[in-house]
Design a protein that fits this description.
This protein is of the alpha/beta class. Helix content is about 35%, strand content about 15%. The strands form 6 sheets. It has an 8-stranded parallel barrel. Strands 4-3-5-7-6-8 form a 6-stranded mixed β-sheet. A hairpin with a 2-residue loop joins β12 and β13. It is globular. The chain binds beta-D-glucopyranuronic acid (BDP).
């Protein structure tokens, strides 16, 4: 399953067998994306004995066509139509991008694309921007390393302090991304340090080289920039977004970016957040800040992705009135309607920071006159750092299906008009993602961004089929079932042995791996669980707490605001309750904590056993890598169980009703 010195992931040669055996007619004019489609089909034919022609070919079994006519109308530039009649399967698109997505769709269908008849079906992405943010540093950062929160080796883009000379791997990355629907990549860390700031100006050529490698797969390149760029790079005395010289600087710099990269996507900005510069220093609003950059990008069709992760990271833990969860909503909702059309607010899916369980951010849905993008984290910072199996498809799907106004109101997947963004989990590791099974997160993200209503379980099975081509295995059923079993419930398993009932954190400060029950409890980050001898949880109700629950619209303010109606899994996020409080499940909080920690470890033991049983069916290198990581996952899960359980035993003094030993 490997090509060259890296894993073929979900595009192993065998996945192209059905296409590669056919006679294909490409009726599509020219252009780089059409050339990409031709190259893909020609390669597959070279391997499996088919043939591809660019004209003629009356007896074609697969027709890939670009049409300006009515058949292509309404598909948009990324959509495609698929039909099968009289022994010919036809993919129709209005341009190269749609054709490429159509080809990958046929690859996913395999032989099914060439059976029977198929009435015309149309496919279009639900979201126009499907983006990966790389938190990659060009220079290795002394604390964060090269890839901030990266668990898959070094950067795919940068090595030895500059853009890689050989961008073959970047091209291969673009290919994998196109095959799951991603169409935008930001190539550097949102924390823009001094070296990386220069990518915007004197080092834009390096970004252009990366953009060239990604373009053949329909991917636009974006850049994280520092809000202080006019000072850092332009020697201006201020970065005040309303200052004429500052605005002129952004216009000039942006014009030069577009000279180098004609289809440049735009900027990503982290401002006034965790020490990054921003408009607050000048008494300006975030709309003023975002709009200054948006104005510079506007003539070229670029977008500024302005992050809403703005909060006070120097708070006093004793002061319960400053609730970090409230921050994004409090800062941004008053500005609704003030942002330029090409300014997109990029909102983390939860109000805190990518914990294993958070409610959906109340900001989503609360700014009807602003374009929002939703940001999720594929890199597993708080979900096992790619040493634990934690497939996040069900979590993301829950977020995307959530209806902020309740009832039959729009879903998050519809409100994310500015796109869906994930912090990438890929690096230069031979398996791309460190843990080979973490590839499933990258793939699932792309497919959910294309169709937020997709069933994540079906996406998982699709990933399994493509990556492991079970039909060629000695035991397809054991292989497929085994892979599905170890991945499908893995998020729930992870939740069971880590911080309970939505309370979050309890991780080692700094690197965020492994348990530290009071790690953040007395520090200024705003991430507390308030456990004492009587109870645990954060009172975010409106009646007695921080009022955060009151930020929700529709029925949610009430649902979350009351201990009676709050869902169990979020109880400690919203409420401080006694250990004896009885959950909807019928268990007390303390017994739930004990039971689920034991269950979580048992589930990891079982998954490890299932994986061991697939040794004869999985490529040995991949099998060994996963097996080795299961040892660490199990060690860590036991550590979590023991620390969390003994902590709550000592705090509460309530013994385990089932008499198990807690150390
Ligand atoms: C946190 C990470 C930090 C990021 C920050 C962000 O710990 O490294 O810089 O999010 O999203 O989760 O900006």
């Amino acid at each position: 399953m490997r090509t060259g010195d890296f894993d073929a992931a979900w595009l192993p040669p065998a996945a192209f067998r059905a296409v590669g055996r056919r006679r294909t007619l490409l009726r599509a004019g020219d252009g780089p994306l059409v050339d990409t489609v031709h190259g893909e089909v020609a390669d597959a034919c070279g391997r499996f004995g088919g043939r591809v022609v660019r004209d003629g070919g009356e007896d074609a079994e697969l027709v890939l066509e670009v049409t300006g006519g009515p058949a292509g109308a309404g598909l948009g530039d990324e959509g495609f139509a698929l039909a099968r009649r009289g022994g010919t399967t036809t993919v129709t698109a209005s341009g190269g991008r749609g054709l490429l997505y159509g080809l990958f769709h046929v690859v996913r269908l395999g032989e099914d694309a060439f059976r029977g008849e198929r009435p015309r079906e149309e496919h279009r992405p639900a979201l126009a921007v499907r983006m990966l943010d790389h938190w990659d540093n060009v220079a290795v950062h002394p604390v964060m390393g090269q890839v901030e929160r990266g668990y898959a080796g070094g950067s795919l883009f940068w090595a030895d302090g500059r853009a890689r000379g050989d961008l073959g791997r970047v091209r291969a990355y673009g290919r994998l991304l196109a095959a799951c629907g991603v169409n935008a990549v930001a190539v550097n860390n949102v924390n823009v340090h001094e070296t990386e700031a220069h990518l915007l100006t004197d080092r834009i050529g390096e970004v252009a080289a990366i953009a060239d490698a990604l373009r053949p797969y329909g991917i636009r390149t974006h850049l994280s920039v520092t809000f202080a760029a006019p000072m850092v790079l332009g020697s201006l005395p201020t970065a005040d977004p309303l200052d004429a010289a500052v605005r002129a600087w952004w216009r000039g710099a942006t014009a030069r970016v577009y000279e180098a990269i004609g289809d440049f996507g735009g900027y990503v900005v982290k401002a006034d957040s965790e020490g990054r510069p921003g408009p607050f220093a000048y008494g300006r609003s975030h709309a003023d800040g975002a709009n200054a950059l948006a104005a510079a990008l506007e003539p070229y069709g670029g977008t500024v992705h302005w992050r809403t992760f703005v909060y006070d990271h120097h708070q006093d833990w004793r002061d319960r009135s400053t609730d970090r969860a409230r921050a994004a909503y409090d800062h941004f909702t008053p500005l609704d309607g003030e942002f330029a059309p090409n300014a997109v607010l990029q909102v983390k899916h939860g109000p805190m920071d990518f914990q294993v369980r958070e409610p959906v951010s109340p900001l989503i849905g609360a700014m009807p006159r602003t374009r929002l993008a939703v940001e999720v984290q594929a890199t597993q910072e708080y979900t096992g750092q790619q040493r634990h199996v934690c497939w996040l498809g069900p979590m993301w799907s829950e977020v995307l299906r959530f209806r902020p106004e309740g009832g039959s109101g729009p879903r998050v997947g519809e409100l994310a008009r500015g796109g869906l963004v994930a912090v990438s989990n890929a690096g230069d590791d031979p398996f791309w993602t460190g843990h080979p099974l973490a590839q499933a997160n990258l793939y699932t993200f792309g497919r959910l961004a294309w169709d937020p209503r997709a069933d994540p379980g079906a996406v998982l099975d699709e990933w399994i089929r493509l990556t492991f081509t079970p039909e060629r295995s000695a035991d397809p059923v054991r292989l497929t079932d085994g892979l599905h079993a170890v991945l499908d419930g893995s998020w729930a398993t992870y939740e069971k042995y880590t911080a309970p009932l939505g309370v979050g954190f309890m991780v080692q400060p700094g690197h965020h791996y492994g348990p530290s029950v009071d790690g953040y409890e007395y520090s200024p980050w705003g991430t507390y669980h308030f456990a004492d001898r009587d109870g645990v949880g954060v009172d975010r109700s409106t009646a007695t707490g921080t009022g955060y629950a009151g930020q929700y619209a529709g029925p949610w303010a009430e649902v979350y605001g009351s201990v009676e109606t709050c869902p169990d899994e979020l109880l400690l996020f919203f409420h401080h309750v006694p250990y004896g409080h009885v959950l909807h499940s019928g268990r007390t909080v303390i017994q739930h904590i004990y039971d689920t920690r034991f269950e979580g470890v048992a589930e990891v033991e079982e998954a490890r056993r299932v994986w061991a049983g697939l040794a004869d069916l999985v490529d040995p290198a991949r099998h060994a890598r996963v097996a080795e990581r299961y040892e660490e996952q199990l060690r860590s899960a036991r550590e979590w169980r023991d620390q969390v359980n003994s902590y709550f035993l000592r705090k509460s003094g309530v013994p385990d009703a089932r008499g198990r030993t807690i150390h």
